[in-house]
Design brief:
112 residues; mainly beta; seven-stranded mixed beta sheet; four-stranded antiparallel beta sheet; 53% strand; globular
């Protein structure tokens, strides 16, 4: 069974930082690209970032480029999202995705 478990969310003030983790199991992690998405109430999922299997290629949406950094540790089957200079509009539930499977999400709340 494929499982993805996000953690690291919380409440921070604008300008602060959080580091999200997504621990996976039951999938060929080292052979698959991984991605991060987020969703606000009443809105569609928004693509944020992706990383190739060997971490030699990354992609960032304009909304987070220069502030967020995606990485992975294939020895731990884990993908990370370092989020810096957070803004109130970053408030959302953050999800990781891989092997066509979603995690349960972790809440990020950024206050003024």
């Amino acid at each position: 069974q494929v499982q993805l478990v996000e953690s690291g969310g919380g409440s921070v003030q604008a300008g602060g930082s959080l580091r999200l983790s997504c621990v996976t199991s039951g999938l060929p992690f080292g052979s698959n690209a991984m991605g991060w998405f987020r969703q606000s109430p009443g809105k569609d999922h928004e693509f944020l970032s992706a990383i190739s299997a060997s971490a030699d290629n990354t992609y960032y949406a304009d909304a987070v480029k220069g502030r967020f950094l995606i990485s992975r540790d294939n020895t731990k089957n884990t993908v990370y999202l370092q989020m810096n200079r957070l803004r109130p509009e970053d408030t959302a539930v953050y999800y990781c995705n891989g092997y066509a499977t979603w995690g349960q999400g972790t809440q990020v709340t950024v206050s003024y």
